[in-house]
Write a structure and sequence with these properties.
By secondary structure, the chain is α/β, with parallel strands linked by helices. It is built from eleven helices and five strands, in the order αβαβββααααααααβα. Strands 4-3-1-2-5 form a five-stranded mixed sheet.
Length: about 325
C-alpha cells in the first residue's frame, strides 16, 4: 500500500509562474488543471534552463516520465498509461470529441497566433526569455515567431486572410462552447474531463497573460457564462492552492527555482562558505551548456537567413519592429 501511494505522487515540471497564474506557459496550464480536477497529489516544479524545450511540461514519478512532445502530450500519456483518466465516461460521445477538437485546434491556434504574431511579444518574452541575456532572448524570440508562422501557414501573401480565419474559428469555438456549457459547472456529465482542463487553461491564459489589447480576450469576454466558469474554477483550483500545499512548489534543480527577493534583502552574518554539492555543480554546467548550444543554434539560424539567396528562409520586416 505504501509503495502504491509513492507511485501516485507526481511532480509536474512547468515554466515559471507569472500573471498571477501557477504557471504562465499555455501548454503547462492545462496539465496543472487536469491534475487539480482529478485531485491527484503532485508537486509543482519550475524549469528555467530550457525556455524553448518542447518537452515542457512533463510529469515524472520515480522512473516514469511523460513529456509534452511524446504520445500526443502529457494528458494523453497520463490517460493511456493508466495514471489519471478523467475521460472514461465521455470518450465515446461525439459532441465531446468535437468540442475537444475545437479547443485543441482552433483555440490553441488563436493563442499561438496572439502570443507570437498578433502582439508586441511582451507576454512571450516574460514567459520564455526573461531569464536569458537580452540579445539571446530577443533572437530566440524572433526565431520562434518564424517557426510559429510556419506552423500556422502564415506568409506575406496570406497574412491578413489567415488572421481573419484564426479569429473567426476562435469566435465560433467560443460560441459553441458557451451554448454547450449553459449554466452547468462542467461541459459534460456534470463532472470535469480533459476538455474542462484544456479549455480552462486556454481561458485563464487569454484573460490574464495576453496583452490588454488582445482580440482573443475581447471575443471571450462576449460570453458571460464562459467568463463566470473560468473565474469560478480559478478561485477553486488556482487561488485556493496559493494558500495551501496541495500543489507544492519544489525542485531539486537549484537553477530551476526562482529565488525570492527576500533571500537577498539583507546580508547574513558571516558564515563559512558552503561547498557546492556535485548536483549543484552539474546543474550549473547544464545551464552554461544550454546557453552555449542556444548561441550556436542562433548563429546557424542567422547564417541561414543571410545565405539564402532565394528567400527560402525569411523573416518579415515586421518581426524586427
Amino acid at each position: 500500500m505504501e509503495e502504491a501511494k509513492e507511485r501516485e505522487k507526481l511532480t509536474l515540471v512547468t515554466r515559471k509562474s507569472s500573471f498571477g497564474l501557477p504557471t504562465s506557459c499555455p501548454n503547462c496550464l492545462p496539465v496543472y488543471l487536469y491534475l487539480k480536477f482529478s485531485k491527484t497529489p503532485f508537486d509543482l516544479a519550475f524549469n528555467l534552463i530550457n525556455p524553448d524545450s518542447d518537452q515542457i511540461p512533463y510529469v515524472e514519478s520515480g522512473t516514469y516520465v511523460a513529456y509534452n512532445n511524446e504520445k500526443g502530450g502529457v494528458i494523453r500519456s497520463l490517460i493511456e498509461d493508466g495514471l489519471v483518466d478523467l475521460d472514461s465516461q465521455v470518450r465515446g460521445i461525439p459532441e465531446w470529441v468535437s468540442a475537444k477538437a475545437m479547443v485543441d485546434s482552433w483555440l490553441a491556434d488563436a493563442i499561438l497566433y496572439e502570443l507570437w504574431v498578433g502582439s508586441d511579444g511582451s507576454s512571450a518574452h516574460k514567459i520564455y526569455y526573461s531569464d536569458l541575456p537580452w540579445p539571446l532572448g530577443n533572437i530566440l524570440y524572433l526565431k520562434q515567431v518564424h517557426v510559429v508562422k510556419q506552423i500556422l501557414g502564415i506568409t506575406k501573401d496570406n497574412a491578413e486572410r489567415r488572421e481573419e480565419e484564426i479569429y473567426r474559428n476562435a469566435n465560433d469555438a467560443f460560441s459553441a462552447l458557451s451554448t454547450r456549457l449553459g449554466e452547468q459547472a462542467y461541459f459534460f456529465d456534470n463532472r470535469p474531463t480533459s476538455l474542462d482542463a484544456v479549455f480552462l487553461g486556454h481561458a485563464l491564459f487569454t484573460l490574464y497573460a495576453l496583452p490588454d489589447n488582445s482580440v482573443l480576450r475581447s471575443k471571450l469576454l462576449e460570453h458571460d457564462n464562459l467568463v463566470r466558469y473560468t473565474e469560478k474554477h480559478k478561485l477553486e483550483l488556482v487561488d485556493s492552492s496559493a494558500s495551501s500545499s496541495s500543489g507544492t512548489q519544489s525542485q531539486s534543480d537549484p537553477s530551476s527555482v526562482p529565488r525570492r527577493p527576500s533571500q537577498w534583502s539583507s546580508k547574513p552574518k558571516s558564515k563559512p562558505k558552503r561547498e557546492k554539492t556535485e548536483e549543484e555543480k552539474k546543474f550549473r554546467r547544464r545551464a552554461k551548456y544550454f546557453l552555449v548550444t542556444q548561441l550556436v543554434a542562433v548563429l546557424v539560424f542567422l547564417s541561414l537567413l543571410g545565405g539564402s539567396g532565394d528567400a527560402e528562409v525569411e523573416l518579415d520586416e515586421d518581426d524586427y519592429e
